[in-house]
Automatic annotation (TrEMBL), chains A, B:
Domain Tetrahydrofolate dehydrogenase/cyclohydrolase NAD(P)-binding positions: 139-280
Assembly and binders: Homodimer.
GO BP annotations, alphabetical order: L-histidine biosynthetic process; methionine biosynthetic process; purine nucleotide biosynthetic process; tetrahydrofolate interconversion
Pfam families tied to this protein: THF_DHG_CYH (PF00763), THF_DHG_CYH_C (PF02882)
GO MF entry, a single one: methenyltetrahydrofolate cyclohydrolase activity
Name recorded for this polypeptide: Bifunctional protein FolD
Organism expressing this protein natively: Nocardia camponoti
InterPro entries xrefs: Aminoacid_DH-like_N_sf (IPR046346), NAD(P)-bd_dom_sf (IPR036291), THF_DH/CycHdrlase (IPR000672), THF_DH/CycHdrlase_cat_dom (IPR020630), THF_DH/CycHdrlase_NAD-bd_dom (IPR020631)
Keywords: Amino-acid biosynthesis, Histidine biosynthesis, Hydrolase, Methionine biosynthesis, Multifunctional enzyme, NADP, One-carbon metabolism, Oxidoreductase, Purine biosynthesis
GO CC, alphabetical: cytosol
Pathway named in the protein's UniProt entry: One-carbon metabolism; tetrahydrofolate interconversion
Keyword Hydrolase recorded: yes
Chain residues that bind NADP(+): 165-167, 231
Catalytic function, reaction form: (6R)-5,10-methenyltetrahydrofolate + H2O = (6R)-10-formyltetrahydrofolate + H(+); (6R)-5,10-methylene-5,6,7,8-tetrahydrofolate + NADP(+) = (6R)-5,10-methenyltetrahydrofolate + NADPH
Amino acid sequence: MDTASLTGKDLAAAINSDTAKRAAALADAGAAPTLALVVANDDSASTWYVNSLRRAAKKLGIECDRIDLGAYASAARIRSELTARSADPAVDAIMLQTPLPAGVTLDDVSSAIDARKDVDGVSPLSLGLLAAGLDGFVPATSEAVVELLVHHEIPLEGRTVTVVGRSNIVGKPLAQLLLAKNATVTVAHSRTADLAAATSAAEIVVAAAGRIGLVTGEHVNEGAIVIDVGTNESADGSIVGDVDAATVTGKAAGLSPVPGGVGPVTTALLMRHVVVAAENARG
Amino acid sequence: MDTASLTGKDLAAAINSDTAKRAAALADAGAAPTLALVVANDDSASTWYVNSLRRAAKKLGIECDRIDLGAYASAARIRSELTARSADPAVDAIMLQTPLPAGVTLDDVSSAIDARKDVDGVSPLSLGLLAAGLDGFVPATSEAVVELLVHHEIPLEGRTVTVVGRSNIVGKPLAQLLLAKNATVTVAHSRTADLAAATSAAEIVVAAAGRIGLVTGEHVNEGAIVIDVGTNESADGSIVGDVDAATVTGKAAGLSPVPGGVGPVTTALLMRHVVVAAENARG
C-alpha cells in the first residue's frame, strides 16, 4: 500500500499567514503581541527549540522576550517570575520552557501562569477547562495532532484512535480533544501489557511516548493512519520520531513525517495562541 | 462461570466508620463539618438522592444544609449562591445537585465553587488538578469505581479497561484515575461505531452511560470484571443500572450490583471529602 506523507508544512503556512495579519493589526492598533518565554535550563535541545520559536515569532511580527532564570532556579523563583509576568499588562502570553531544574516539576510552578496568558495550556486551570469542554488554551502539540488530521481530511467521528503516551502536555489532553471529536479513544503507555494489541486495534495511531522507534510496522494495521509526535534527539544529533518509518511505510495508509509533520503545526498554533491572547486582552 | 457480586456495602461501612470518628473529633474541637447542598430543581430522583445524602450526613455527624433555589433559578443566581457559600467560613464543603434549571449547564456555574470546598470535584480547577495529577477533590463516583475495584483486589496495573460513557463527572475523570493506576484505558460512548468490539477487548468494563441495559452479555468477555455505574429510574420507579445483569451473570467473573455496588461507596466518599475539607480548613 502507498503510504501518504501527512506533512504539516502547508497547514502551518496557512495558519501563519493568518497570524501575521492579526499580529500586524494589533501592532497598528498600539503594540505588537508579546510572548514571554521563560527558560530555566541549559539543555541543548531546549535552546535549539527556543531559538526556533524566537525566529518564528519574529517572522510573524510577534515580540518574544526570553527570560533566562538559569539551570539552578528554585521553584519559588520560577513561580515569582511567572506571577509577575501574569500581572504585567505588557505581556500577552507566557510560555514556560521544559526541562525545568532538577527537583522542580511543571506541576510545582504551572499554576502561577494566568490561564488567559497560558498559551501552551499547561496550568491546572487550563487543563480543567479542556476537560470540561470550556474555552481556554489547549496544549499546542495535542491541538496540532487534531488539526493535522482534519487538514488531511481524515475523519475522527466514530473512529478508533490509540494514543501511545499519557503525558500531561500531549497524551492526556489529546485524548480529551479526540473524545470531543467523537472518536473512541484508547490511551496506552509504558505500563501497557500488550502495546501491539492496543495499537493494532486502532484505525488511527498517535505515537507520543518520546521513545525512538517505539511504534513499528508490527504495531499498526494495514491501512492505518499513523501520527508521529516524537521529537527525540538521535545519536548523531538529528531529530527523529517515535515511529520506525521504514517498517510502517508500505503498511500504513498515511504517516506524518518527523521533522515536517506535527512540529511546524505546533509552532504555528502556539503563535496563533499568542495573537488570540493579545486580542482577548485588548478587547 | 460463577459471577462474584462486587458489593460496595462493606467498603462503604469501613469508610463511614472512619468518617464518623473524624467528624466527631472536629465537632469536639469546635464545630461539626458542614456541607452546603445547593439544589435548583424539582426532580423526583434528585429529591430522593438529596434526602439520602442528608440521612447519610446526619448518621455520620455531618451538618447538611439544603439550599433550595427553585427549579427556575438563573445561572447568575446559582453562581452568586455558590460564591457566597465559598466565602463563608462556616461552610466546609459545597455540592451542587443536578439536574440544573433548563438553559443552565454545570459548566456555567461550577467555577464559582472554591476548589477547596468542591467535594464532588466538578469545577474546572478541580478537573485540572486531577488531569495534572495534583491534590484536589475527585468526582466521588469515579473515585468509587476505583476504590471498589481495589477493595475487591482486582489489579489495575497493565490491565485493559473500557469505560462506556464520557461525562465530565464520571467517564472522563475515571479515565484519568485509571491511567494513574497504570491501566490501559479506552473510553467508548454513544458515537462509538462498534461498542461490543470496544468492550469485549477489555479485561474490565465500566458502564457509565446512563442507559438501562446498554451493556449485555454479548458485550463482555468470558471472565471479565464489570462495574455498573448506572442509576437509572425504571418504568416502575426502581433504580436500575446500565448493565443487563441477567445476561452478564454466568459470563463475567464479577459484577457490581445496582443498588448496593458503586452507589454506597460514592456516598461514603462524598462524606469523607466533607470531613477532609473541614480538616484542611481548620489546619
